Amino acid sequence: MPTNEAAMTAARDLYLDLIKRSLTGALAEDNDTVLGGARSRGTGSVLKRAGHTAGSLASRFNLEIAYKRPYDAQRRENGLDWPSRAESMIGLRRMDNIQHCVETVIADDVPGDLIETGVWRGGACIFMRSILKAHGVTDRKVWVADSFEGLPKPNAAVYAADAGDTHHLWDGLAVGVQQVRHNFERYGLLDDQVEFLVGWFKDTLPVAPLDKLAVARLDGDMYESTIQAIEVLYPKLSSGGFLIIDDFGSHASQAGQAIHDYRAQHGITDEIIPIDDFGAYWRKS
Is the pTM of this model over 0.90? Predict the structure, then answer.
């Protein structure tokens, strides 16, 4: 017979595994393409624009136009596809990384809260809160920082790396704060340990009542969004805390360049550890 402690650990692990599989759409094998949804944007071929328009119009009447796509477990593991209805597109490996980082700072008693900058539907932040809940942690908060209206138009005059960026055209990246709050509620995780920072990072992060951070996860895609976040947050990251960057791979050189520039400017030499083709992290010495 397992001991009570072993049984509690097994139950906690099962709960967290179900949460992250649900948040990523792996549990439901969610891989439909919804016209006018997250994968759609109002640019491209005439057919694509027509599909986007039709899907957007249908959504106004609480209808959905979708077509089935085969589910690929390996792609979902590595966050290489976008679930249509789930709360996160980062995949299971990057969810595992969040769990590793949060559970490590809990075990090592590294002081500080948790934050994600750029949350989409809130999945990664919901998972952060679920980890605190599973471990009975009541003295840390999860900060949910986003414009909640998509990404900004590139300001190439100041951030040359963002010239030509088109993220602001992707309607599916704009998820309102009320929807994200509702997603927390659906998982039973909206409480006073969750704080929302609504607005552009340049406006919200410098004045946010943040003291110490134990885990900071940056998912801003662009140079501007990434550099504005790390400049404010990294000095507040405790020694032994983790900095996670979601857009570090070659596909997102703008965010990666911002990270390299900041590390070079501040002489940061802590080893960057890859998670998958998109994500990476390091532990602050």
Answer: yes
